[in-house]
Amino acid sequence: MTKQGETILKFENVSVYYGIIQAMHKMSFEVKKGQIVTLVGANGAGKSTTLRAISGLVKPKEGSIIFKGENIAGMPAHEIVKRRLCQAPEGRGIFLNLSVEENLDLGAWAAPDKNSYQKNMDLGFEMFPRLKERRKQNAGTLSGGEQQMLAIARALMSQPEVLLLDEPSLGLAPQIIEKIFEIITSINKSGMTILLVEQNALQALEIADYGVVLETGTIKTQGPARELLKSDEIRKAYLGE
Asked: What angle do CA 147, 152, 155 make, to 5 degrees?
């Protein structure tokens, strides 16, 4: 069993191709249990590709992705979810024609402890009171912020040990973005390890323990988030200063 502070997820020299185009070049980094690790960089830097490789949606051409001591690189996506590694995808990916409750039901299909279903549902509604108010509504009638909350709550229904979040602030109003980041921090304080992909580099690094800065499929730099925030080069290139 992985203890707090030990490496739970490790990228080792991972390369990914889309056809003949190399999207990721021998990337290596680690995620320690209990941390928020954020991947930041511009569009096309390879952030979402990293999460897709972890989730089994793309197969690395070389390298290893080690989760709790097991190489999951190239493993089918449903097997990875069963190992308690789950993603809230970019664009939310919720089922618009299903109710809030039905979306959450689908999130629970791979949960290892089926007896905890109601407990997990109640915790989700406690964390996201708006979803409880709208539990019978079709997800397509929710606001953008509410849909993002549903995507996160659905991922949590699978009882993940590592939660992957892909651009959770995308397309949201500033006050809703602030709320989403508060929720991410709260989830992490409950003990959840989080790998966060985010274009909003400043806010992401402010809540993260560790940051990995990507540029065209390579790691430009990485280190403790506080140190990256102090770097003049990083602030100028990625934080708009």
From this structure: 125
The helix or strand, by DSSP H or E, that contains position 194, with its residue range, turns out to be: strand 193-197
pTM of the model: 0.91
- CA distances, 101 to each of 49, 96, 134, 153, 157 (Å): 30, 12, 9, 10, 11
Residue bearing tokens 């209990």:
34
Q: Across the beta sheet with 210-215, what order do the strands follow?
A: 85-88, 162-166, 193-197, 36-40, 210-215, 218-224
Among residues 27, 22, 23, which one has the least CA distance to residue 9? 27
164 and 87 Cβ atoms separated by less than 8 Å = yes
Please list the pLDDT of the chain residue by residue as tens digits (241 residues).
667 779 999 999 999 999 999 999 999 999 999 999 999 888 888 899 999 999 999 999 999 999 999 999 989 998 998 899 998 877 778 889 999 999 998 888 777 776 778 888 888 888 888 899 999 999 999 988 889 889 999 998 888 999 999 988 888 888 888 888 998 999 999 899 999 998 888 889 999 999 999 998 999 999 999 999 888 877 777 666 5
